[in-house]
Write a structure and sequence with these properties.
The radius of gyration is 18 Å and the shape is globular. Helix 1 packs parallel to helix 2, helix 1 packs across helix 8 and helix 8 crosses helix 9. Strand 1, helix 1 and strand 2 form a beta-alpha-beta unit. The protein has nine helices and five strands. The longest helix has 16 residues. The chain has one domain: HUPs (Rossmann fold), CATH 3.40.50.620. The chain is α/β, with parallel strands linked by helices and about 240 residues long. Strands 3-2-1-4-5 form a five-stranded parallel sheet, with helices on both faces.
């Protein structure tokens, strides 16, 4: 029996790696889609390749586009990445690390890829810790794009496919996401989440993404296997005299 095909948006981060594992566990023939969009943390693409290879995806497509031309985000322009913010600060406003319309752009590419490959299922790693700050991570946004997908495609209009956008992490905390991934055998040492890594690709341990990731591992009672600047891996505690400051 032929497996259903699915497109997974794969950044190389913790969430998307978990979503990829979930799609595989649900029996989909998975293809992954990643973007080199001018992000300052382009090291995540190396992680995406490693995750896709480890998962044995049928096809991994990497698309280049330059969102630096628009700027407007700390991830694509010369704007400092916020560090050491409290959880209240992180959830109080749309952060400067929001990339204008990024998920809309990425999902549009994923929709085209899906239609070409005969896939009707798209997987996206948004979750409850993200959509409080990012407008394109909310359930109502995902539902609206799903409606658009079925209105704006040949497959949708002709009825040969009914597109669905799956967001299996949307109601989960980082602790729950990590627990789910570990149960599915995700190797989180392959992933990268930091918004502002060192020139050597080490995570800063202080940006919003790093703080959420570290908190999720702590709440699971295990160390984060990622490499952090000036720290033991996953502890978030700076080592003195290491020469890595």
């Amino acid at each position: 029996m032929t497996k259903r095909r699915a497109i997974v948006l794969l950044s190389g981060g913790l969430d998307s790696a978990t979503v990829l594992a979930i799609a595989k566990a649900e029996g989909y023939d998975v293809m992954a889609l990643s973007f080199r969009y001018g992000q300052r943390h382009a090291v995540e693409l190396k992680a995406a390749r490693a995750v896709a290879h480890a998962a044995g995806v049928a096809r991994h497509l990497e698309v280049a586009l330059d969102l630096r031309a628009m700027g407007g985000s700390a991830l694509t322009a010369d704007i400092p990445v916020p560090r050491n913010r409290s959880m209240d600060e992180q959830s109080s406003e749309i952060p400067v690390t929001y990339v204008p319309a990024r998920n809309t752009i990425f999902l549009a590419y994923a929709l085209g890829f899906a239609e070409v490959e005969g896939a009707a299922d798209l997987f996206l790693g948004v979750n409850s810790l993200d959509y409080s700050g990012y407008p394109d991570c909310r359930p109502e946004y995902v539902a609206a794009f799903e409606r658009l997908a079925n209105l704006a495609t040949k497959a949708g209009v002709e009825g040969t496919a009914k597109f669905r956008i799956h967001t299996p992490l949307i109601d989960l905390s980082k602790r729950e996401i990590i627990a789910r991934g570990l149960a599915l055998g995700v190797d989180y040492s392959l992933t990268h989440s930091c918004y502002d890594p060192s020139p050597h690709g080490e995570a800063c341990g202080e940006c919003d993404s790093c703080q959420l990731r570290l908190k999720g591992f702590r709440e699971n009672g295990i160390e984060d296997p990622a490499s952090y600047v000036g720290t033991k891996a996953g502890t978030g505690n700076r080592e003195q005299g290491t020469g890595n400051e």
